[in-house]
């Protein structure tokens, strides 16, 4: 299915000392008298996903893990072991091997997962929905994730449980909100725009992230490049992508469109002129036409708009049946339906009411333009 598989195997995690050591890195810790990484490797083999990159933190740990895999899975799997610096985090580990990732989609799985869910089914679901990211969630233990340390008795009882707050659409197939490690006692604030986009949302605190993801490679590369401070897939990358899917209005599954490789939605009937670009987090509606050398960034353009050449639209909403002349510049503005902007209009921080005509060469900043009430 043109998937590359990345297994994040960790290293000699300080959190697991003294169980781990230089001689026994995390991936080789025994579970049921087998190295823990063997469970995921055999699960991948059963799904016929046999070309793997196993990422290990630390050169010495990588050598030991690679040596064990070579002996145990000779002639069964094709495994490349990649060493990355210690303590870079899951996102940092992917960033370090990004040049090795060339397939359309990337399956990322934790090296300590023990599961009977066919990983091929996760990959197939990701491809079926043409998703930017697919995450596997599972039921959390009734008592919640265990606390670290050796707290017992009344000390443990005082500690609030930490949960993932998960928001799902009515079909329970699409993530529309995620807050990792949130305390159940705290208020959770959810933007109205999210609720408007999905109509209805189910909030769950009984689910946990299984640390199994499928990513569209082009979007993953873009996020890792632009967000160089992101260290964790669970805490940084996944919540960011969930937020981004709603920046452009309706979520893709509700609009009937699919995200492109550029993380935008362009209706198949829309027409783009030569050297015209529509950036990430943008939407271009049905039947709209754009001339040559236009640029759209972080904006929504509605249906059946006619946009001339050399037009720039940034951080703006353009509604339906809007006509925009050549050489216009629109920034941080909202243009209502049936508006006409004649040539060389410059708008910044403006709102233009329905049906209004802005004359050629006008430059407006911080204005509300609308027809006079009769």
UniProtKB/TrEMBL annotation:
Organism: Prunus persica
Residues annotated as domain EIF2B subunit epsilon/gamma LbH: 267-360
One GO cellular component term noted in the UniProt record for this chain: cytosol
Gene Ontology MF annotations: translation initiation factor activity
Protein's name in the database: Translation initiation factor eIF2B subunit gamma
Keywords: Cytoplasm, Initiation factor, Protein biosynthesis
Residues covered by the Nucleotidyl transferase domain: 5-149
PANTHER family associated with the record: TRANSLATION INITIATION FACTOR EIF-2B SUBUNIT GAMMA
Alphabetized Pfam families for the sequence: LbH_EIF2B, NTP_transferase
Compartment list: Cytoplasm, Cytosol
Keyword Protein biosynthesis: yes
Function: Acts as a component of the translation initiation factor 2B (eIF2B) complex, which catalyzes the exchange of GDP for GTP on the eukaryotic initiation factor 2 (eIF2) complex gamma subunit. Its guanine nucleotide exchange factor activity is repressed when bound to eIF2 complex phosphorylated on the alpha subunit, thereby limiting the amount of methionyl-initiator methionine tRNA available to the ribosome and consequently global translation is repressed.
Subunit structure and binding partners: Component of the translation initiation factor 2B (eIF2B) complex which is a heterodecamer of two sets of five different subunits: alpha, beta, gamma, delta and epsilon. Subunits alpha, beta and delta comprise a regulatory subcomplex and subunits epsilon and gamma comprise a catalytic subcomplex. Within the complex, the hexameric regulatory complex resides at the center, with the two heterodimeric catalytic subcomplexes bound on opposite sides.
Family under the similarity heading: Belongs to the eIF-2B gamma/epsilon subunits family.
Family matches, as InterPro entries: eIF2B_gamma, LbH_EIF2B3/5, NTP_transferase_dom, Nucleotide-diphossugar_trans
């Amino acid at each position: 299915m043109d998937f590359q598989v990345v297994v994040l195997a960790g290293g000699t995690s300080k959190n697991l000392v003294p169980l781990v050591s230089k001689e026994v890195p995390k991936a080789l810790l025994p579970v049921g008298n087998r190295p823990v990484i063997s469970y995921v490797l055999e699960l991948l083999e059963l799904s016929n996903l046999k070309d793997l990159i196993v990422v290990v933190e630390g050169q010495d740990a990588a050598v030991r893990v690679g040596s064990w895999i070579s002996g145990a899975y000779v002639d069964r799997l094709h495994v490349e072991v990649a060493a990355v610096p210690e303590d870079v985090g899951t996102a940092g580990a992917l960033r370090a091997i990004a040049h090795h990732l060339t397939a359309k989609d990337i399956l990322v799985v934790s090296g300590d997962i023990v599961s009977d869910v066919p990983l091929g089914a996760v990959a197939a679901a990701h491809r079926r929905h043409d998703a930017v990211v697919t995450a596997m969630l599972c039921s959390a233990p009734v008592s919640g994730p265990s606390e670290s340390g050796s707290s017992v008795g009344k000390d443990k009882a005082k500690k609030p449980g930490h949960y993932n707050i998960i928001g799902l659409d009515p079909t329970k197939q699409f993530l529309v909100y995620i807050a990792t490690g949130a305390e159940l006692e705290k208020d959770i604030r959810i933007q109205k725009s999210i609720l408007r986009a999905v109509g209805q949302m189910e909030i769950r605190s009984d689910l946990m992230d299984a640390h199994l993801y499928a990513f569209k490679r082009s979007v993953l590369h873009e996020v890792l490049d632009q967000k160089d401070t992101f260290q964790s897939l669970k805490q940084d990358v996944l919540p960011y992508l969930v937020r981004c899917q709603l920046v452009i209005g309706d979520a893709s599954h509700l609009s009937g469109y699919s995200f492109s490789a550029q993380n935008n939605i362009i209706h198949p009937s829309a027409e783009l002129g030569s050297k015209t670009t529509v950036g990430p987090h943008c939407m271009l509606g049905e039947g709209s036409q754009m001339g040559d050398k236009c640029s759209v960034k972080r904006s929504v353009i509605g249906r059946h708009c006619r946009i001339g050449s050399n037009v720039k639209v940034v951080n703006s909403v353009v509604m339906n049946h809007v006509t925009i002349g050549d050489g216009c510049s629109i920034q941080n503005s909202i243009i209502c339906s049936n508006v006409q902007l004649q040539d060389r209009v410059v708008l910044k921080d403006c709102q233009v009411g329905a049906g209004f005509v802005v004359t050629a060469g006008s430059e407006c900043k911080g204005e509300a333009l609308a027809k006079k009430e009769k």
